[in-house]
Automatic annotation (TrEMBL):
The gene is YGP1_2. One of its GO terms (molecular function) is asparaginase activity. It comes from the Eukaryota. Residues 1-19 form the signal peptide. SUPFAM superfamilies: Glutaminase/Asparaginase. Keywords: Signal. Coiled coil: none annotated. The keyword Ion transport does not apply. This is Glycoprotein.
């Protein structure tokens, strides 16, 4: 009992990956098989014996699209958030509802959505995909997709599909990686999506949608350095773009905790239940002497503040990794993707994190 009380004191920020961290921590082993059963009962299963549907996928439309192109269709995948009442008002759009969640989506759900997005993106007739999600999940979903998808077709994550349709239909949306549109109609690179709409300084917008639904781009198209074609992630970890690891290893548990003075035995007990830990670094102070470190699981320090701050290896304990400019939720997503792909060494994580 004491241990659980201590744990709840330790767990921080609402976590995208685990909605109810305490329960998940202790149920992890037993629910593992249940997840994989869930997954194929509710969603189209990737058919490894048939590859005709996906042949010549991404370069079919060369990443650019305009609404007038004959049979190309914008796929809108709804997981929560705002969608118009009538679908019929829009031609060339196809709505699919996967979830209607108002809480933060977890890693299992993110991978499920990714598989569906991938299928629509691989389909020649689709011009791009929009994923509508709730406000709590926007940052996690758009960062997750930024790492997972390496395509020229636009993938736009939003809370409100009305704002995202002009963006996904705009020729300038191609070759920028995954984009997100916040409810103040600012367009961000998925890598820099702010934690909430009005947390200015947490990310740099790349465009604005005006009242006539025209998209005004601030910059020429390019991808964020973290996922550019010369990045470590794209060059050395091409398995990060496959969604299958999760079925072999179960969903990773990567909680976010506050830094503080915890006993080393608490951290050791935690290490056996989780696959990684994100520690919210305490303010601008130096966390090198923090008590949260582990030889067993990867520990990443991130900062929750706006504007952006940078946590490097000089700021963290010796066997931990600094998340660079990534927020705790983004660090949690990246660490989870790494865990799914069996990448846990400190040196590998140091290369992957900015
Ligand atoms: C899930 O897939 C496996 C293998 O493809 C199959 O044996 C199992 O019956 C499926 N479960 C459900 C609930 O469809
Ligand atoms: C997978 O594709 C093969 C070949 O097209 C087909 O025979 C098989 O029925 C498909 N399986 C499923 C589960 O759709
Ligand atoms: C899938 O693709 C591989 C290689 O491109 C090919 O050898 C195989 O016959 C294809 N399978 C089907 C079912 O089309
Ligand atoms: C894929 O592209 C190649 C070359 O462009 C073409 O020969 C082949 O028929 C295409 N396959 C499909 C399924 O469209
Ligand atoms: C798609 O791209 C691949 C490699 O980038 C190329 O080999 C293939 O011919 C392209 N297919 C079409 C239809 O442009
Ligand atoms: C793709 O776009 C580039 C420039 O945007 C163009 O040069 C190239 O011909 C296009 N390829 C196809 C297959 O449409
Ligand atoms: C769509 O693309 C076609 C061919 O690339 C072009 O002729 C047409 O003007 C474009 N339409 C719009 C609305 O941009
Ligand atoms: C709409 O999307 C769903 C899921 O991707 C797909 O099964 C369906 O065929 C699509 N409908 C149209 C008309 O393309
Ligand atoms: C993710 O959420 C779903 C639905 O709430 C739940 O069934 C599943 O167990 C959760 N998975 C994890 C890993 O927490
Ligand atoms: C998308 O599907 C392709 C197969 O065409 C696969 O190689 C790739 O790993 C998938 N990526 C994701 C993110 O689902
Ligand atoms: C952080 O603190 C440690 C010792 O407390 C010190 O050695 C180190 O230089 C400090 N790092 C920075 C970046 O100030
Ligand atoms: C993914 O790729 C990395 C780097 O190549 C490798 O170390 C890791 O073992 C791979 N993961 C899996 C599950 O194959």
């Amino acid at each position: 009992m004491k241990f659980q009380v201590a744990l709840s004191a330790l767990l921080a920020c609402s976590s995208a990956v685990i909605a109810s961290p305490i329960d998940s921590l202790f149920k992890y082993k037993s629910t593992k098989t249940a997840h994989s059963r869930d997954i194929n009962s509710t969603l189209p299963v990737w058919n490894t014996t048939s590859n005709t549907t996906y042949a010549n996928g991404t370069n079919g439309t060369n990443g650019t699209s305009n609404t007038s192109s004959n049979n190309s269709e914008l796929q809108i995948i709804v997981t929560g958030g705002q969608v118009p009442i009538t679908n019929s008002s829009l031609t060339h759009t196809n709505y699919t509802r996967l979830y209607n969640s108002s809480s933060a989506l977890n890693i299992t759900q993110l991978y499920n959505i990714a598989r569906v997005v991938n299928e629509t993106i691989q389909d020649k007739s689709s011009s791009g995909a929009i994923v509508v999600t709730n406000a709590k999940s926007l940052e996690a979903v758009s960062f997750f997709f930024s790492i997972l998808f390496d395509t020229n077709k636009p993938i736009v994550v939003t809370e409100d599909s009305a704002y995202a349709i002009p963006v996904a239909n705009d020729k300038g949306a191609a070759k920028r990686g995954v984009l997100s549109v916040t409810s103040d109609k600012l367009v961000y690179s998925g890598v820099f999506t702010p934690a909430s709409t009005f947390s200015y300084g947490a990310g740099l917008p790349v465009a604005i949608v005006d009242d006539q639904d025209q998209v005004e781009w601030f910059f020429d198209a390019s991808r964020p350095t973290l996922i550019s074609s010369s990045s470590v992630i794209r060059k050395e970890y091409n398995n990060f773009t496959t969604p299958f690891g999760i079925f072999e290893n179960g969903a990773p548990i990567v909680p976010i905790v506050y830094d503080g003075g915890y006993s080393s035995s608490l951290i050791d007990s935690l290490s056996s239940a989780v696959q990684g830990l994100v520690v919210v670094s305490s303010g601008s102070s130096n966390s090198t002497s923090s008590s949260i470190a582990s030889d067993i699981i990867p520990v990443v320090y991130a900062e929750a503040s706006t504007p952006l701050n940078f946590i490097d290896k000089q700021d963290v304990p010796e066997n931990a990794v600094g998340a660079g400019y990534l927020s705790p939720v983004k660090a949690q997503i990246l660490l989870s993707i790494a865990a799914v792909n069996g990448v846990t060494s400190k040196s590998a994580l140091q290369d992957i994190f900015p």
